[in-house]
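It would be a great kindness if you could assist me with a short task in structural biology. A protein sequence and the structure tokens that stand for its backbone fold form the material at issue. I should value your view on which stretches of the chain appear to form regular backbone elements. The record follows directly beneath this note.
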Amino acid sequence: MNGLNARLLCVRTLIRSIKAKSYFNLALTHALMDADALTPQDTALCLKIYQGTLERLLTLDACIKAHASRPPEKLDLEVLCVLRCGFYELLYLHTPESAVVNLWTETVKKLKKTSAAGMVNAVLRSFIRGGKQIPLPDDDTGRMSVTYSVPLPLLRILLADYDAETVTAFLADAMDAPPIYIRRNPLCENSEAMIPRAEPVPGIPCAYLLKRRGETAAVPTVIDGKETVPLDPYRSGLVSEAKAMGRSMHVQDLASQLCCLALDPQPGETVLDVCAAPGGKTFTIAELMQNKGRVYAYDLHENRVGLIRKGAEKLGLSCITAQACDARQTEKPSADRILCDVPCSGYGVIRRKPEIRYKTPDEVSGLPEIQYAILEASAKALKPGGVLVYSTCTVLKRENEDVVRRFLAAHPDYTLEKPWQNLPALAEYGQEMTTLFPQMLGSDGFFIAKMRKG
């Protein structure tokens, strides 16, 4: 049956990743590598349904609850995942409705859940007869939760930190395909001419938008030290082009580039990047320093440190020294500038890693103490007059402003500075503590606080 293999691979991978609580894009990458050859069309379909289902789990479960005789949490995981994928395809793809019903009914049989085939068929048909309407709660917060598939506990925190308009725009952006940015290596001769099918970002040196939003392309991602295929397949030849470009560029979101511009490292200085892997910011720092001086890059895990070394060699950046250490404990060389891009909840990048939104607040409640410990330990290495940048890829104030205020209260010799004062296009966005949202400059959600030691 046409498309059955793609759907079967999709749902099996979804089931495995939920059971293992693994990175969802890493799980799918491995599944695609191990699978029998799929056509490009089947691979694209598998990826589309897989990512879309992940992004909209709560939306889909609300639909299932309205049409199934048992609530989602009472269904076998295999049956639940089949229904989620089927509802996603009915809602968001253009597959003929009868084909969707038939294919997902066959899929549940292939999962050895033949007894559930009639139920899957009936529930999908019930949804179609009902006009494929998403049932929404009466209250505003509940409607946002179902519409954007964000659990209520996280949504309440976001709404406590920001106004509803800001939160709505942020969550709506996470439903769209994320843009892919690259940074051109200015130290590579003729690098500008080598950038493939990209547009320069106005006002931000060496930053390029690789493809227009909504299209897909194929630049690899690094998760826990392993290169993976993004959930949106890059199928326009950009993977081979990017690899062929060698040292002329590296993939880096705009927020990370802006973080390095806030640090503003200068040639000949000593700079520490204390939570550096996989190394994107380290590379940008070294490029801004014209490969002159010394950049010390640290990470807790040796396998991730290897990524930094490999990337530095590829880009021809000889000023980088990478080593494994615990940023909270290891003594570090005296530095002119320090970047503390600390481990965080990651809620700023849900458009790239949709499973992050389903973390419970309890799972990340201990992060502020870790973040503060890293900041406190790193600051000991900063020279008087030096610059310390604290950053995260989350938008939660408990991990951002609250950590910085605690640090400033304990260290009155540090003062906040606005970033990017030498870049007119960015000056209006730079506050003494800056939270970036996609609706501002197109970057991921991100936090930056620039401090100078007196």
Remarks:
- The two ends are 70 Å apart (CA to CA).
